[in-house]
Amino acid sequence: MSCATTSNQCSTAASRSGLPRLVSKRAFIAGVTGLLVATLATKVFHRRLPAAQPTGVPLATLPGQERYQPLTLADIQAKQCTGCHKSVDSRTGLWFEIEGKTFCQECAQQKARQTGAVLAIGPISAKSFTPAALHLWRSKPTTLRPKSVSTGGLTHLTGYAVYVRGQATGLSLMPEVKTDQGQVRLDRSRWYVNYDRAGKPIAGPFNSRKSAQRMAGLLANIDWQRPPSEIRQSEIEMVKTMSRHF
User: Can you give the pTM of this predicted structure?
Assistant: First the structure.
């Protein structure tokens, strides 16, 4: 009986001291620790496995894109754009023929994207020249006077100053300059329009002085008496377009 009493007393003492809770807490911690160890072991195991290599998928070769060249003024037969229906003379930029139809540059870019093609020239500023209206420009009547021209670091070359109504335009005509064994030779079968203040040609070559003079008359619509720093980008684009469609 004393043994039973002692056993009961021990149980009661253990209960009062919190031993069952302590044992349960230790068991819980041991279980969580075991779970973490197992998880880490699994990750390490998978890391040691060789990584699966991705399967290569061959890419289809892109077909060559068609490139549309801008039309010259002589090639523009339509009176308006097929896309926006605006007249040829009112639209800024170049003109293109796509699938037998004429488009202004803006509509041509949209049409080219639809057909997977590209235009053969980059976008031009909206403030740039209207090439479709080139025929509305009048080549100013010019006269020529012999003068000494400088270009490409060479000076005192024989050329012609371009005048409009007795006023200097800032332009001059000069034949192509060639050097042969240190000797300067002028090729009078090829002519350029020279921008005097920059000391360099801005248009050419032309196969005759007369053709170069006609181009100078067209370029005389721009004030070339200004220094190069005052020539606007839109005017530079204008010169390029004039030369391309001359």
Answer: 0.47
